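Slide 14.
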Amino acid sequence: MTRETPLHDIHAQLGASFTDFGGWDMPLKYGSELAEHRAVREAAGIFDLSHMGEVRLTGPAAAGFLDYALVAKYSSMKVGRAKYGVIVNESGYLLDDLITYRIGEEEFLIVPNASNTPAVVEALETRLQHFVTEVEPAAEVTLTDESADTALIAVQGPNSEAIILTALDAGADGEFGPATASAEGAADAATVADGVRQLKYYAWMPLTIAGIDLMLARTGYTGEDGFELYLPNIAAERLWTVLVEAGRDRGLVPCGLAARDSLRLEAGMPLYGNELSLETTPFDAGLGRMIGFTSKGEFVAREALAQLGETEPARVLVGLSSEGRRAARAGSTIHSGDAEVGVVTSGQPSPTLGHPIALAYVDRGVSEPGTELSVDIRGKAHDFTVVELPFYSRA
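Slide 15: predicted structure.
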């Protein structure tokens, strides 16, 4: 049985088409996925991401445990910042990619992908048990899975900052009205607004909107400026309504998974289950640079990763672009002459660029930008060229 987010009723009222995604009943689109995509590129879109996981780590040894459990170094992170990373199994293959926020000196929030949350939690719990008994006996670390109680809403696009700033003016009841704040209150509001404007990419801040205490992060998966807002499930509908009202005159539209996928593909961002899986390593996906071989000591799969890194991967992740009209889809084979040299992992027409694009794993020898290849699309060969990633980046 699929699970529903706390915003499911709102999506149904908006006429969303639903799809099963990682065991969740998620909105695929509300009308035109192309219109939703373009709204994010030109104005703003609002997404329900409440299917994502949230795992909190607290305690004096939380940073040290993360250094041990994941491949990158987290103890050097500053409070208020975020880091993209991966978690691997003991053999060095990818369990998931995730974002980690440093909430305090002794507190972190890890956000795994929806379908991988149980596996990530299980892996972290197993590693924590080993850490506090074998690596750092009696170390104090507490792991709490808050996924079932936490909602996540994203506002993405060039107008996203203006929408968040407008939402700050909503009253505790979620209604917008004439300002009645004192001079002191107005000064405090101005300080908060400045904090939002100055918030850096991959950073977060605490915020209150319409009486809802939440975490505002300048992160996203679209290639545009934007924010992700973490809050309790019980307040999700109210916040969604406030944000929609704040964006009414700024082109904000609800967006589903279809637009999210085309947006992330244009931005060259990998998707677990497509570009990343238990059959790929960080080196295959071009993520080997984040492994802390020289910056930290013992960590899970260190020896396995070091051994994997001794030889270059046979196939590497690249971008493909075509001047034709036919789009390559996941699973399409790639050829150089008569030789099969790779496989497409994600592909579709780019709404922004106006031509087909794809992500693919290809043999290292044909991975240089400018290399001409052909892709088998329904039994016919179509010309594609290896290109630099991302396909699209905002000005």
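Speaker note: The first strand starts at residue 17 and ends at 21.
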